[in-house]
Records
---
Amino acid sequence: MGRLPHAWRRAPRDPDPVADLGYDLVDLDVVSAADDAALVVLPADEDHLRGDAFAVVDPAAVCDLTAMR
């Protein structure tokens, strides 16, 4: 394994998603399909909804990230 770039060496071990990583956090809605075989994840704010602003995922792929800290 090679050396990490300088910026990564300075990054905190538990970075703040907004301040350290520049993420824009949005509220999400998770909707179950009729047969519960899949979930649709999309932005809660309709202003953020566009053609590619959703994901269809297996229910096992979704978790509460605050519980993972």
---
Amino acid sequence: MLLLALGLVFTHDLITQSAYFQIHTIRIQGEEYLDRERILQQAAIPEKSNLMALNLRLVRLRLEAHPWIREAAVTRRLPHTLEITVMEEEPFAIVHPETMPDKAFWANRDGRIFKELEADDPVHAYPRMRDLPFSDTQNRHLWFSRARTLLDLLQENEEPSLSAGPPPVLWIDPDLGLSLSDTAIAARILFGFSDFREKNLKLRTLLQHRREHRQTTPMDTIDLVRPDRVVVIPAAA
């Protein structure tokens, strides 16, 4: 038994220290927001590492510690290749908490906050939610669900004046509901708390009517809160 144990130790040391199993190639899959260099930096794999000696679990945990990486898998491909597969977070919106208006965070479609916004993050394509309640988790998920529904409907809308300009800023107000600000259509569009599909259709009908009648008067507010009417307040001269 002693000889067998010594033999196993010798074999283990021979394999984990052999230059034959040195890592020559690292393949990475799934990267989108992170580039190869940042993923390798996060993985922190020493140069000339032995493939058999590398602690795959530790590398995976390092990768998953990065806020953009939701899941990671690390696999050996003998004799010289290491494969890394990452599943990155899919950002849906940038949210500003009601108690911290100067702070901004990334949220995925489920409403999970996964990192604070940084200066070099790709913000140009994502809508913003302002005054999202953070202190009450249930209330936060309720408002996020409402906001996500409205944003999805607006994205489906093929109305060109809705897609013009930067991504929308969606305001959350516990008394007035949801509203858009500083759009190419009007300074404010009020949507209220529910019936967003019907209100989106009313908005499209209003904009089509204005085009057909060549109405170019700027609008200050479009009030869609009540499902039975649309109120338009012209911009001040």
---
Amino acid sequence: MKVLRTDRGGEYTSNAFFEFCKTQKIKHQLTASYSPQQNDIPQRKNRTIVEMARSMLNYRHLPKIFWAEAIFCAACILNMRPTISVPNMTPEEEWSGQKPDVAALRVFRCVANFHVPVEKRKKFDVKGEKCIFIGYSDRTKGYKLFKQLQVQFLSVAMSSSLNMNHGNGRNQKKMQLGFPIDGTAEQGDHQSHDTLQNSSNNSSSSHIDASLSPRNTSACPGQAVVTRTSSQARVLSARLQDYVMTSADDVSNEKLVNFSLFTDCDPFHFVEAS
């Protein structure tokens, strides 16, 4: 190499780089300040590589932290494809004198099954692990794979408010339900649904049993009705504190029965419907 023309980036204007060019007897030329068009060929190639890497990341839905792997993978592909700058051969063949092995190319971010060597596993450990391909290694004859060790589910909170007017009072009930956006949580939703349904059924049964106590029944006509009143104060169960408890007489109220017609949206869960 006799002459090297670069822009005025910090990696090219350091004293260490100047000394390296001097010892190698390379003439170092710099473009004018803020004039990248004077170094058009490298700048155009840099843009080509960056555009390829951006497209690979966006199309394969990878975060930007993999930009270095995408850049290196794009450069490998460009070195193994024909170009008008090197007639009838690829850049890699012009550099090394050997035709590149295109059979080693793989699709960026494809699923790769990694075989765990026997030295790296115990007797009952799995022999293979599922990873994703993120590029080629420049230090050994192999591929670069990525294994996600921790999976994080993003949860969103659904809030539902239930407003009810009863007489002069106003009771309001609010619930917040969280669920993962991943479809694998469907089984957990069913279990929560069954738990909530059983809890609601138990509370309804307790309420009905209390309302059907023999306070208005008599053994014979004409006898006085004896009402048994417990001296122990009844404490509402903790699991029923989020529910609006009504008596059997209130159910006959038309406003209370039809209040669900004025809700803003359809219920998503059993608790909202109840």
---
Amino acid sequence: MLVGAGGAMAVLAGCAGGGDGDGAANETTTTEMETTTTEADGGTETTTEATETTTAADTANVRVAHVSPDAPAVDVLVDGSAVLEEVSFGTVSDYLEVPGGDRQVEITAAGGDPSVFSGTVTVTAGMDYTLAAVGEISEGADQPFEVLVLEDDNSDPGADTARLRAVHASPDAPAVDVTAADVEGALFDGVAFGDAAYVEVPGGDYTVQIRPDTETNDGEVAAEFDVSLEGGQVYTAFAAGYLNPAEAPADTPFDLIVVQDTGGMSG
């Protein structure tokens, strides 16, 4: 689990029912019995063998991340049925299995109205997704509320390698460069609000630095967080909250919310 040095980290989710890192989270195995009859001396001989066929299931794994800094706790409905309730800022749910195809998703304030999002989300069976609630619900918001549909790459990065994804979800932050102390170059270059990108690095401990985007990736460090990445695992880091909460619609300070996507972690 990664730990943020700059503030309280949310209790985050791992992979219940999906995203186990081996690329087979949505496969099913069917066993069929095959009977063969052959001629033998003095009569016939019948043999029965079991054969296994592995096919992709007809469901996708979907989780929800609440990283809208001025939105209240929310309920999430899929095709009219509540699948998550009382999801507060900074929370990332477990993966939920949903049928592949077009799904009607609605996000409401916890307990019912008002609805802050209603729309169709298309997911493909056999894949993992994160639905990230980003932006602001306040009137005159700089970044309107929306749901980002992110495809999650939970395949195995290799025993000594960690895969890290950055998601820019801070409404008042400019495009940023993400660097790490004692690591040459930028991990992520010029990530703007709503952007998401992956990088692979050796497993180990890092001090991750958030900087305003510059051509040389050496802007003044705005925030830094100590993180630990385990080889063979996949992580997502949401840059969320406000850089200047005193001037924002909600007093939600900037933080790096990090979740381990693979390895069966749960909270």
